[in-house]
Design brief:
alpha/beta, five-stranded mixed sheet, 20% strand
Length: 161
């Protein structure tokens, strides 16, 4: 498998999210990834072409109480993940991030990947709400469309930056 797209995806994540410079954002390392996969294997979704990944979506199931604390800016992304229990029903889903290479945008990849993850997570957890911390108008619009299609209310933390 080619790593050309992988490098581009990582550069895009660094440029757009700049997680290394923002202590409130989740920096997905191996430890965080393992915790998220224990919450549910569908927290990560992706699409690839012959050159590697072209779209990644990260969603995080959690409790309604933690969702509310996050929306009110009482906790950050790292704390949201750290405080989410692995052994109880999770009723809220954080639409954490979507990264899509420019030439693959506006093809419905984010929507499709997110909805597939939502459906898989719903098989184990009784989801009652989605929430988002928008980075861009484009991301905000995607979250609205995903919530409408999933027939779940969408809650928002104040837009970043």
């Amino acid at each position: 498998m080619s790593t050309k797209n992988y490098r581009r995806m990582m550069q895009l994540i660094d440029r757009v999210f700049a997680v290394k410079n923002d202590p409130d954002q989740l920096d997905v390392d191996e430890k965080v990834m393992q915790h998220l996969l224990r919450l549910h294997p569908a927290t990560f979704a992706g699409h690839s072409d012959e050159n590697g990944p072209v779209a990644w979506v990260l969603v995080i199931p959690t409790t309604l109480a933690l969702m509310q604390r996050f929306i009110r800016s009482e906790i950050n992304e790292k704390q949201l993940v750290d405080f989410t229990p692995e052994d109880e029903p999770l009723e809220a889903l954080y639409l954490c991030s979507a990264t899509v290479l420019e030439e693959y945008r506006r093809q419905g990849l984010t929507r499709r990947l997110a909805l597939e993850s939502i459906e898989k997570i719903r098989q184990k957890h009784p989801l009652k709400a989605l929430f988002v911390w928008p980075f861009s108008d484009e991301g905000d619009a995607a979250a609205e469309a995903i919530a409408a299609e999933a027939k779940l209310p969408l809650y928002k933390r104040e837009k970043r930056g």
